[in-house]
Automatic annotation (TrEMBL):
Signal peptide: none annotated. It holds the Pfam family SpoVR. Coiled coil: none annotated. InterPro entries: Spore_V_R, SpoVR_N. It comes from the Bacteria. It comes from Noviherbaspirillum cavernae. PANTHER family: STAGE V SPORULATION PROTEIN R. Residues 5-383 form the SpoVR protein-like N-terminal domain. This is Stage V sporulation protein R.
Length: 460
């Protein structure tokens, strides 16, 4: 049990001093020791205080089962910001929490210096914990006014669309410009037309104008579904829009964590190993225990299995960073840390040589349960690692057309998406959307054989 809090504070302060000397540059980090149950709540909710919803309870049970089976253990959760906030489990051992302290400092350095983290923190703000707590309070007030069931329906829709934002656009963006094209005058009638229209019984032409064309909404496919529904749903109430925009802002905040997971975890793992190696003030037995914990974190496989069918981002990121620093030096690594996300990091620096060394491959699972290796090619391995990260891991769906009657057409961009839709799940999500849109909603996609399919909300 980690009961020696004074020793942990002492080691943490000295590790922070060492980190600064080693060139790490980060916003201040506030460390807090919490219980394992509270840490699990933070992990499944994504934030210490967040809006309540049944889906988080499902995630909690799933995490509890995995932890009970020994498949998952949470050492820390760190929230980038100014200051950063880091939570450590109070019943971890002193060596484990000493390692975690160094790991968090690596995360903090990455978060301050990586361009994607800097960009999204500038948009979403550096005080996400306080803002999320304020949003949760507003939603509790909405429950008191409108009832649990009505608020939960809105949260169902918003959280189902949580990954459907456009990370290429600004968090705070303007509505579509109102197009008011100037009406064009009809051509001036010639002499014959004037004489004709002046005949008895004919009404004189009085500056007839062509009706202005109706602006298309959206003017182009809109992939930020949370933003579009919040601003263009015909009958949405203000408190409902507030929920959609709250979920959207938190989704923007989390995006860099998702898009840089391999880089970020690898960078933090590299630095916790390096800082512990340089920390000559640590007792020898504590250092050995901490390094044992490091080995558990960055190993490529789970339990005693020697074959990994899923990538451990800690192991992969750590291995790539070590390879970069060995071949290019630390300053080159720092520049890569600033400029890349996982897409560029994997494609540019996971070499064929490293793929062979790490024994990475692409496999397929047959219906009979047999596993077969199908590819070891560098490009195939790259795409297998990165495919789940494309578009925040969600199908690429756009709001395509808002009809005059208020009905909404969604379009699945299956050609650039590269992944199919679970049609049963799509029907459920469309039902959620229909409840807040309050008009028919259709989704145009394709079936298993590439045939056109249309899914329609039942809320007609």
């Amino acid at each position: 049990m980690c009961t020696d809090v004074d020793s942990l504070k002492d080691y943490s302060a000295r590790i922070e001093k060492l980190a600064r000397e080693q060139g790490l540059d980060y916003f201040p980090v506030d460390f807090e020791l919490v219980t394992n149950n509270f840490m699990m709540e933070i992990a499944v909710y994504g934030l210490p205080v967040r809006m309540h919803h049944w889906s988080f309870g499902v995630r909690y049970i799933h995490q509890l089962i995995r932890q009970g089976m020994g498949h998952s253990r949470i050492f820390e959760v760190m929230f980038p910001g100014d200051p950063c906030r880091a939570f450590l489990v109070n019943n971890n051992t002193l060596p484990e929490n000493t390692l975690v302290t160094a790991h968090v400092l690596g995360h903090a350095d990455f978060a301050k210096n990586n361009h994607l983290f800097a960009q999204f923190m500038q948009m979403a703000g550096g005080h996400i914990l306080e803002e999320a707590a304020a949003r949760a309070h507003r939603i509790e007030n909405a429950i008191n006014v409108h009832g649990q069931e009505q608020v939960e329906e809105v949260l169902d829709a918003a959280l189902a669309l949580e990954p459907h934002i456009d990370t290429n656009r600004e968090l705070h963006r303007s509505l579509y410009p109102v197009q008011t094209p100037k009406a064009e005058l009809l051509p001036e009638p010639d002499v014959f037309q004037k004489r004709y229209h002046n005949l008895p019984g004919e009404k004189p032409v009085q500056g007839m104008r062509s009706p202005p064309p109706r602006a298309s909404v959206p003017p182009q496919p809109e992939y930020d579904l949370l933003w579009f529904i919040a601003h263009y749903a015909p009958d949405m109430e203000d408190w409902e829009r507030d929920i959609f925009l709250a979920v959207r802002e938190e989704s923007f905040y989390f995006y860099p964590v998702f898009a840089c997971q391999i880089m970020n975890e690898g960078w933090a793992s590299y630095w916790h190993a390096r800082l512990l190696r340089e920390a000559d003030f640590l007792p020898h037995d504590l250092y050995l225990s901490a390094i044992k914990a490091h080995s558990d974190v960055v190993r490529p496989y789970a339990s005693e299995r020697q074959l990994a069918l899923a990538v451990n981002p800690y192991h992969l990121g750590f291995s790539i960073w070590e390879d970069i620093i060995e071949k290019k030096g630390l300053e080159a690594a720092r520049q890569i840390c600033k400029e890349e996300d996982d897409f560029g990091f994997v494609r540019n620096y996971l070499s064929a040589e490293l793929i062979d060394k790490l024994d990475l491959f692409v496999y397929e699972a047959r219906d009979d349960g047999d596993i077969r290796i199908v590819e070891r090619d560098i490009h195939a391995v790259h795409e297998a690692i990165l495919a789940p990260k494309f578009n925040y891991g969600a199908p690429r769906i756009a709001a395509n057309h808002l009809h005059v009657d208020g009905s909404l057409q969604l379009l699945h961009d299956h050609q650039s998406d590269g992944r199919g839709l679970d049609l049963a799940r799509a029907e459920r999500v469309l039902e959620y959307i229909g409840r807040v849109w309050r008009r028919p909603v259709t989704l145009h996609t394709v079936g298993e054989r590439g045939e056109a399919r249309v899914v329609t909300s039942r809320r007609l």
